[in-house]
Amino acid sequence: MKGEGQALAHGAVSILNAFAxxxxxxxxxDLYTRxxxxxxxGPGKISSGRPAAEDQTxxxxxxxxxxxxxxxxxGEVSGEVTTSSNIPLAVGLKSSSAASNAIVLxxxxxxxxxxxxxxxxxxxxxxxxxxxxxLTGAYDDAFASYYGGAIVTDNEARRVQKTVEVPTELRIIIxxxxxxxxxxxxxxxxxxxxxxxxxxxxxxxxxxxxWDAMTLNGLAVSSVLGEDPLPALDAIRAGALGAGLTGKGxxxxxxxxxxxxxxxxxxxxKFEGQIIETRPNFSKAVIES
Length: 289
Fold this sequence. Notes:
Number of domains: 2
CATH architecture of the largest domain: 2-Layer Sandwich
Helix content: 25-40%
Strand content: 25-35%
Oligomer: single chain
């Protein structure tokens, strides 16, 4: 056992929210979470240092425990996990998926075990379900966070349905209101009324029209959660390729070509909240030490 490992994984934004149908989609973005795991031989607890919130602490410990169990070390080691991130928490930017991926990868590194990407993504998904950080397992978010790029998935089957090529020069404009929404506060049944709309968005995404899917999905989910659709509509009016609520919100995302980023950025800037501008991410999660 090496004893210490550090890894980094990226956040993402929604193309499709999987709450209504189990079908999802996500685009990785250039915001990240870094995790460091220190392990010691002998039984004991796993603690989470510098926790940002109670649910993040639960996720951190669950991700380490799930990884230890996968490699046959459960009950045989103790240790600590710490994370740092520039992803705002609990706003729909897949901070939980980024954290679970980074922690699982860092734990595998600390154990000195050979990593298998598919298995590690699934471990992170199970950890998210165990601690209540996800209602569906968020396979779409986890996959995009781990591998980068844009994908459409069947979350219930944990299968990628389509990988979508997106231009590297795109800009991602994000409006982050000064409030949070925890996954545990939601019930999947409340999204049943938008099931048909979600299926239409999914069909569009499978045809490669992911920006149309993002807009339709975002407006539909906003209607369920009582979020204002005007920032998204204004962004579309300003030239965004697609815009809408990401995940459970309350953050809104608008995707634009590089040359129109200033104009599109002005639209959500009129509303209350922080503006973050970033790019798509195409890099895999990586072990740093």
